[in-house]
């Protein structure tokens, strides 16, 4: 009797405050297409869930002496005292074969609520440090991650000769400093440029492009890394 092949799992962490935003629409398309490809998909909507992005000493009380966040994370992992909220999100990260961070680009980076999710959930001692190293020795080696992004500017403005500079330069600190740092293989981002300036027909075309990208990812047809 054949052993059933376990379903792959995807975790989509979304950070946009508007349910009707294009960013939210393309996140839903991505989730739908991954499910169609056979993935079990969990969506975490940080704004809808009221996620607090603040990493402070209250998360680790009692704290003796100066507050050192990563040292307290290590202690909480060692003593099994992570908060239930953080533990649940961390478990979702550890279980997922694919992590998708979905967000609008604000000030050339991710919204603060998503950065705070990284601060609190990418726990030292659980994903890196302690029994783990960094990069290809970190806990999430063998798993994949990617970004699903919208911008205010055009594709031309985010080119190497454009007004802002190359998109890859803005995303490097996320790709390398957050995702690869904890072991992920990072896939090329899916970016929709300037959806607020598109016609309805152009937005439909853009959503179809997102659908095609995630169909390819879901069916194992995309392996190119974001970083050469």
What's the quick description here?
The chain has helices at 22-36, 46-49, 69-79, 84-95, 112-121, 167-179, 200-218; strands at 9-14, 40-45, 98-104, 144-150, 185-186, 190-192. With 228 residues, the protein is an alpha/beta fold. β1, α1 and β2 (40-45) form a beta-alpha-beta unit.
Describe this entry's structure for a reader.
The protein is an alpha/beta fold. It has one domain (9-218): Rossmann fold. It is built from 7 helices and 6 strands. The protein has helices at 22-36, 46-49, 69-79, 84-95, 112-121, 167-179, 200-218; strands spanning 9-14, 40-45, 98-104, 144-150, 185-186, 190-192. Strands 1, 2, 3, 4, 5 and 6 form a 6-stranded parallel beta sheet that branches. Helix 1 links the parallel strand 1 (9-14) and strand 2 (40-45). The longest helix is centred in the C-terminal third of the chain and has 19 residues, at 200-218. The protein is globular, with a radius of gyration of 18 Å. The mean pLDDT is 94.
Low confidence ranges: none
Total number of beta strands: 6
- Major sheet details: 6 strands, parallel
Distance between the termini: 42 Å
Strand content: 5-15%
Instruction: Give the topology string: H per helix, E per strand.
Output: EHEHHHEHEHEEH
- CATH architectural group: 3-Layer(aba) Sandwich
Mean pLDDT, nearest integer? 94
Shape: globular
Oligomer: single chain
Task: Return the CATH topology.
Answer: Rossmann fold
What's the Cα radius of gyration?
18 Å
- The number of helical segments is 7
> How many distinct domains?
1
Structural class: alpha/beta
- Report the helical percentage: 25-40%
């Amino acid at each position: 009797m054949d052993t059933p092949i376990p379903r792959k799992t995807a975790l989509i962490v979304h950070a946009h405050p508007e349910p009707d935003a294009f960013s939210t629409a393309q996140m839903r398309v991505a989730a739908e297409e991954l499910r169609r490809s056979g993935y079990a998909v969990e969506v975490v909507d940080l704004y809808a869930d009221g996620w607090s992005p603040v990493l402070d000493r209250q998360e680790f009380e009692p704290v003796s002496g100066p507050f050192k966040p990563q040292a307290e994370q290590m202690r909480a992992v060692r003593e099994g005292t992570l908060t239930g909220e953080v533990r649940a999100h961390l478990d979702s990260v550890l279980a997922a074969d694919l992590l998708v961070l979905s967000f609008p680009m604000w000030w050339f980076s991710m919204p603060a609520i998503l950065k705070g999710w990284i601060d609190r959930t990418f726990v030292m001692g659980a994903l890196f440090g302690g029994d783990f190293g960094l990069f290809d020795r970190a806990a999430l080696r063998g798993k994949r991650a990617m970004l699903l992004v919208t911008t205010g500017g055009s594709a031309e403005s985010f080119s190497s000769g454009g007004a802002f500079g190359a998109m890859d330069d803005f995303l490097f600190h996320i790709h390398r400093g957050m995702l690869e740092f904890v072991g992920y293989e990072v896939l090329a981002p899916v970016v929709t440029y300037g959806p607020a300036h598109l016609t309805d027909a152009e937005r439909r075309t853009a959503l179809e492009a997102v659908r095609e990208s995630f169909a390819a990812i879901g069916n194992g047809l995309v392996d190119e890394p974001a970083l050469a």
